[in-house]
Amino acid sequence: MNKFAREKTLLNPVSRTLIAIALMLSSSTPLAASVIPKASERECKRLLGRGDQLFSGGAFHGSLSFYQQAVTAEPSSWEAHLKYGRTLSRLARTEEALSELFQSVMLNADNPETNLTARAEIAAIFMKQGNYDEAGGQLKQVLDLSPNDNVVRGNYAICLEHLGFIDAAIEQFRLIAKANTYDTVVLYNLGAAYLRKADFQTACRYFERVISIDNKNVLSYLGLANAMLLTGNVEKSIEYCKVAVKLVPNNHLAHLALGDAYEKSGDRAKAVDSYRTAIQINPRDRSSRAALAKILESSRQVSNKGQLQLTQ
């Protein structure tokens, strides 16, 4: 067999196929790795599934353990950090929760549309802490990608209101109300925003609208009471407060508002009784304690002044 014949034999169809397969298998992009998840990824997914079952049933302590194990199994999983952080938040471990949630956002930075849940959770924590600036920033990013999420829009409006941007907050609330004309929560918030703006007539209109939908809405009666008090109609304010107290006798805010109205009317004794009732219902409420301390101090000053005049 000559040299040409030997080369031709080496390059027969079968040989060429084997060579092609060998080259494919030795390429830098292995096929198996792109289809079959790593063992750590499979374990992470299993743990997340167990955690989800417990979380959905409200067993946050139980689910926390599985989510923590999932993070350990696959530290690069943004989903594991999200679920772990969300559960930490439910258990009031806020600083740890924020750390995990921000880690989730960072790991998933290339896919902002799937970071909406994490950002909403972060915002909720900041709102509870009174950090409305940071919360609003997170919610704005969610709204940019999900403009139809009215829960997020409502929370964003609340942040704007607390930051003093009342008109901007009203604009957001009105967008929600336009889509949900019977949403008593957003209608009440519109009333509260107009009340802060000192537009008492519009505020009362929204509070009355809420009551026409839900005649047991205590907050709207208290909103009307506050509006009446600020406009000098003390008797009407007392009337609305009494309705609120009758509807929910164990609502400390209703008794606090009634105390304010009685104090404004000059009936200090009834004001003190209302403040004390508010404190009995909620001993931790600082507003009730401050109001009671203020009126008692004022009464002492009046008493001392009278004694001073008698001795002169």
Q: What proportion of the residues form beta strands (DSSP E)?
A: under 5%
Average the pLDDT over all residues and give the rounded result. Answer: 88
Would you count the extended β strands for me? 0
DSSP helical segment count: 18
**What series of H and E elements makes up the topology?**
HHHHHHHHHHHHHHHHHH
CATH architecture classification name of the domain at 181-287? Alpha Horseshoe
Task: Label the structural class.
Answer: mainly alpha
Report what the structure shows.
By secondary structure, the protein is mostly helical. It has a domain at 181-287: Serine Threonine Protein Phosphatase 5, Tetratricopeptide repeat (Alpha Horseshoe). 79% of the residues lie in helices and 0% in strands. The chain is built from 18 helices and no strands. It is elongated, with a radius of gyration of 32 Å. The chain starts with a helix and ends with a helix.
